[in-house]
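Collaboration report, partner site 2.

Our partner group contributed sequences for two proteins of shared interest, and the home lab folded both. The records are reproduced in the order in which they were received, starting with the first partner submission.
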Amino acid sequence: MHNRFLSQEKLTDSNGNPIAGVTVNVKGTTISATTNANGLFSINANQNAVLIISSVGFKTQEVPIGGR
């Protein structure tokens, strides 16, 4: 399994506005990151991993990293 470093990934709302303070966890691990004021985050994860994205006021989502 190969690790991927996702750098400067951006999370936005449905209007394209950046979302600050979002927690991004690698499912099944203790690896996590939080988005900054510009909605950006960086995280190290296996290329087959799933990211769990959660924030107050938003529905929690699970997103596979895949070939990103």
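Second partner submission, folded after the first:
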Amino acid sequence: MADPHAQLAQVLTVKGNLPAATKQFQQAIALKGDLADWHARLGELYQKQNDVQPAIDEFKKAQSLDPKDESSIYNLGYLSHTTGDLKTAVACYEKVIALDPKHQNAHYNLGICKQRANDFDGAEAQFKAVLVLNPEDGQAYINLGRTYVMKAKLADAANYYRQGLSIENTDSTAYLELGNVLMQMNDKPGARFALESASNLAPGNKQITLSLAKLDEDDNRLGDAEKIYRQILDREPGELSVMQRLADVLDDQGKIEESIATYQKIVQLNPTSAESFNNLGLELQKTKDLNGALAQYKKALSLDPNFTDARINIGNIYLAQQNYAYAVLEYQKVVEGDTKNVKAHYNLGLAFVGQNDMTNAVREYRQALDIDPKYSSAYYALGLVYINQNNPSEAVPALENYLAIEPNGSYSQQARENLAKLKGETLTAPDRTATTEPQPNDAPVPQTQAPLP
């Protein structure tokens, strides 16, 4: 590099005057022509100044002049990788590995690219290649863990996370991910250790805190989960996903009024969320405020006319109010648009029973069972209809099918008693009033769960 401009550029680079060094290399290239090394050095200067596109251009020129310039090819791959051009990045990393099969960073970064492209087998191969070169590369183990999560091999994923964390035990993100994997594996003690380790490394991290709260929910430590959600909301009062989870936890604890108040805040902050209005309706329905619940379901349906569950819930309110004609209309609208909706067919059968239209009730119950032969409530409801029609030959198998599916279900005792009467095992007639009536499938749990971190 016996050129005064290039030599001065080197001196300026050492002194940290990168803009001046850049100008000197530009002058050297302008006066003396293209040299791969000069373009590579100029690209490095642009890269150090975060001037990405000129750096990419220079590395491309260096590569065209010297196709075996490993450093320029790698740098071009790295910059392409960081700007989202995975196709170029993969091609560059593969060229580097072809030139130098022991290039650890090229293998590692190629693995990351393969992950992002959902080529999980390819990613696995690259991270394992890194570990052949360096068995103490903790991040390679951790990324193998991530790859196995994506391949739904959770036990293997957990093992790789643990190996990585035995080497790099300050990676809070890896501890968080391990904790979430162990939660999915139902290893609650292991999950708590991992999540608490993550929290100790990154106190106040929201994702870690939310995962700990979810673990508290899974452990039935609902009060602790509620406390965490309230602490987050004290810092971020408008965090809707956390408010949703708080509402769910309050509901699970039977704190329905507090859950209602939380949903009311949610719909105020997000007045276009049909699901939130529907969930508020479900909570109001639990307090027997049927008119209030109906108003919320109708609001949800006005926001999303195709919101099937909201329409079913409207039908359920009418059913509870014994307004059978309106209930039938709502359920029929559902099955017209979704012929396979077992819940709507079943509830439509209940509404027809309310109208004393047993023929249509039987048809709807049987359609529900055609869709889901294990839908036990439909068998029980059929049994009641046949009892009221004095049709024991149909009532008996219906009730027996119910008991085969639900030997300890909500209606099991009544079903057994009526079966005994139908078979003449007792002297009393079957109970035609059916004091234990099947209830509408009203999906008492809110429709959506807040996203997990």
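Feedback sent to the partner group on the second submission included the following. The domain at 334-443 is CATH 1.25.40.10 (Serine Threonine Protein Phosphatase 5, Tetratricopeptide repeat). The longest helix spans residues 18-32.
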